[in-house]
Each structure stands twice: as C-alpha cells, then as structure tokens.
Design goal:
α9 packs across α10 and α11 runs parallel beside α12. β14, α13 and β15 form a beta-alpha-beta unit. It is elongated, with a radius of gyration of 23 Å. It has two domains: about 170 residues, Phosphoglycerate kinase, N-terminal domain (Rossmann fold), CATH 3.40.50.1260; about 200 residues, Rossmann fold (3-Layer(aba) Sandwich), CATH 3.40.50.1260. The longest helix is centred in the first third of the chain and has 15 residues. Strands 3-4-2-1-5-6 form a six-stranded parallel beta sheet, sandwiched between helices. By secondary structure, the protein is an alpha/beta fold. Helix content is about 35%, strand content about 15%. The chain binds adenosine monophosphate (AMP). The site of adenosine monophosphate has 17 residues, from α9 and β12. The site of adenosine monophosphate (AMP) has 17 residues, from α9 and β12. Belongs to the phosphoglycerate kinase family. Keywords: ATP-binding, Cytoplasm, Glycolysis, Kinase, Nucleotide-binding, Transferase. Monomer. One of its GO terms (molecular function) is ATP binding.
Length: about 400
C-alpha cells in the first residue's frame, strides 16, 4: 500500500504524550443485556490501539453507534462498548460523555501516557453525518493527530471520517492498512487469473458490482438467486424460482459486455430444487435446462460446484461476495459449503489468495467452516461492496488528501 502515512510515521512525527484520535468502528451488535454479541470489529482494532498505547500516546477513540440521527439516544451510548474494549485490551478504558467540547477535552487531557478513552457516539451530533466543518474542527480540537482505522465507515464522507482530516495530520491504522492491502491484492494489482464469485438474492442490488467485476476479473461465477435471472435471460424456464423478470435485458447486457471484456461468466449447469424454501425439504438435483414449472432453484447443483472448483484450481486470486444458494436452510447450504471449503483448502496450500466480504458472505463462509482459512474476510459490509463496485471511498481518499 502506498500514499498513506502509517502509524510508524506517526511515531516519528508526533511527540510521545500527544493526544491521538483514532476513528474506529465500534458499531458492534449488542444483546438485550447490553453485552457485545460479536467482537470481531473490536478485535481488529486492538493492534493499532496497542501500538499507540505502547508508544506512549494519549488515545481518544471516535466512533458512530447505531442511527441516533443527531440526537442523544441513551440506548445508543458507546459506554458498554468501551467496557468490552477494556476487557479485550486487558487495560482500563475511560469514557467521555461527549465527543466534543469540555467533556472530551477534559477526559483526553486527564489521560496518562498510553491510556485510552472512548468518546461518546459521534452521531449524537447532526454535524457528524452532515460532515459539518465546525463540528469536524471541534472533534479535532484537543488532538495532535488523527488515525483512521475504520474501513467499514470509509464509504461515508462524515465529519469523523472525512472533515476531521482537514484539521489534523492524518494516518492509516493497522486494520485499515490490512484491509486496503487485502483489497489491493484482490482487485488492484492481483495475481491472475482472478475469479470472482457473486451470489446472493438479486441482480438489481448488485448491478454496479457486476459491471465493475466483469471488466476486471477473468472468470465471474454467478450463483444464488441472481443466477436464476441469468438462466431465464438465456431462455431457460426457472419454474417458481426467485427471478427478476424486469432484469432479463440487463442480465443479457451484462453477459454481452463480459464477453467483450474477455471475462468468462460461469452459470450453474445444474441446480438443487424443491417445491418451497422451507426447513425439512429434500433437494432434487436437475439440469439447469430442466427445471419443472412447480419447483424452485434453491442451490447450485454438484456439476456446478465441480465447475466452480475447477475454476478455483487454475486461479491465483478469488474475490467472493454472496452465497451460492439459500444457505440458511439445509440442505441448500451444500454448494456454498463445498465451494468455500475448496477455496479454503487452496488458500491453506498457498495456491490462492482469497478475499471475501459483504452482506451475508461472512455468515455463509463461517457456516461452511471456511472463513478462518480465507486470506482475508472483510467485515466492512457497505464499504466493501462500494469498493467492489469500483467507487472511491471518501474516508480512504481523505487519507492521502
Ligand atoms: P444478498 O444479501 O443479496 O447477498 O443475498 C443473500 C440471500 O440470498 C440469502 O439470504 C440467501 O438465502 C438468498 N438466496 C441465495 N440463493 C437463493 C435462491 N436460489 N433462492 C432464493 N434465495 C436465495
């Protein structure tokens, strides 16, 4: 990765004891008792926090939490997340009742060198989402430097991801750096051939993504409900399957464009079908050209999985977004499980760089027991999808501005 200032540079530029604000993504799911249900995002933040703490900076953590829409909403306070962070870090973490003004200033200046304070939800102020210049200046006021370690919030030009960078020397955190390195290895300057898997429910939500990928990858595997629309566009009957009739021309245009770009589109040759998407169904395997009128496609079939695994075998890089079938209900998780496990095995052997993320992908790969072995699994959601669409993310662009 180049063009960004790293934490190593921060330690050269900023005196020990200086106040460093780090934009994190503390927007983690809580259970009814207020305990953190999935701490993955917090875990990924620990390396930057530990590095800055060990270097002797006084650290303020900025984050949004939920959608309070510019109002103070008690259930969206970051206080419980600060407690969870302290447990994971194994060191005390203080909490400031506001992210600007005297509360923030006092809490940050009271920190000892190497100590950490979580500042209250940035979205309690309307200036956050409006990227308001005065609010950004108020956020920056107590600090000597700013670090962005929240790739998952980088698709938004908000005061804490964008405006603040106009007021402080700006650095890239270690988690952000790892994410950008992984994304660059997958799509920026990948080892070829590159295979992309795009699954999930609908084409209509993934048009930009399909357009960008088909111009950049060698093979595009289309799976999940959206494959049905492509099969229908090729003139096959898809029975009662999920199918976007209004998108048939679009699907045909994507296939024509992909061919022009030299990208092979791989559609399922066969399918697992059932009368309904419900628990306790038995899957029947049929050719994609012979879907009965009263049945629906709920997963790719075994021949389709073989085709996908062959494509993986000759690839050097894999990008994966979306399940190959309705993986939440057995046995329609079979194709996603097999293909993900094969990709994981190739990655373990060092044959494949595999990067996945967006929507249900993380859940689908973890369900397959394959997530751990992928080279990189992004938990960034919307930011990951916008990056797959080829968009410039304001929070990333601001790191170099
Ligand atoms: P997305 O959020 O667009 O990535 O879509 C994920 C959803 O697509 C999951 O909830 C899957 O159950 C669903 N899905 C995948 N394949 C199918 C299919 N053949 N029929 C209906 N839903 C599907």
């Amino acid at each position: 990765m180049s063009g960004f200032k790293t934490l190593d540079q921060l330690t050269e530029d900023i005196d020990v004891g200086g106040i460093v604000l780090i934009r994190a993504d503390l927007n983690v799911p809580l259970d009814d008792a207020g305990a953190v249900r999935d701490a993955t995002r917090l875990q990924r933040l620990l390396p930057s926090l530990k590095k800055l703490s060990e270097a002797g900076y006084r650290i303020g953590v900025l984050s949004h939490f939920g959608r309070p829409k510019g109002q103070r909403v008690d259930t969206m306070s970051l206080a419980p997340v600060a407690e969870a962070l302290a447990v994971l870090l194994g060191q005390p973490v203080s909490f400031a009742d506001d992210c600007i003004g005297a509360a923030a200033q006092n809490a940050l200046t009271a920190l000892r060198e190497g100590s950490i304070c979580v500042l209250e939800n940035t979205r309690f102020h309307a200036g956050e989402e409006a990227d308001d210049a005065d609010f950004a200046a108020a956020l920056a006021a107590p600090a000597a430097a700013y670090v962005n370690d929240a790739f998952s919030a980088a698709h938004r030009a908000h005061a804490s991801t964008h405006g603040i960078t106009k007021h402080l020397p700006t650095y890239c955190g270690l988690a952000m750096q790892a994410e950008l390195d992984a994304l660059n290895a997958a799509l920026g300057a990948p080892e070829r051939p590159v295979v992309a898997v795009v699954g999930g429910a609908k084409i209509s939500t993934k048009l930009d993504l399909l357009g960008n990928l088909s111009s950049r990858v060698d093979t595009l595997v289309i799976g999940g409900g959206m494959a049905n629309t492509f099969l229908a566009a090729q003139g096959h009957s898809v029975g009662t399957s999920l199918c976007e009739d209004a998108m048939l021309d679009t699907a045909r245009a994507i296939m024509v464009e992909a061919e022009k770009q030299g990208c092979t589109i791989l559609l399922p040759r066969d399918a697992a079908i059932a009368p309904a998407f419900a628990a306790g169904q038995k899957a029947e395997m049929v050719s994609a050209e012979a879907i009965p009128d009263d049945m629906m496609i709920l997963d790719a079939g075994p021949d389709a999985v073989r085709d996908i695994c062959v494509a993986f075998d000759s690839a050097k890089t894999l990008i994966w977004n979306g399940p190959l079938g309705a993986f939440e209900i057995e046995p329609f998780d079979a194709a996603t499980n097999s293909a993900a496990q094969h990709a994981a095995a190739l990655t373990r052997k060092g044959q494949l760089t595999s990067v996945a993320g967006g929507g249900d992908t993380v859940a689908a790969l973890n369900h397959a027991g394959a997530g751990e072995d992928f080279s990189y699994v992004s938990t960034a959601g919307g930011a990951f999808l916008e990056w797959l669409e080829g968009k410039t993310l304001p929070g990333v662009a601001a790191l170099t501005a």
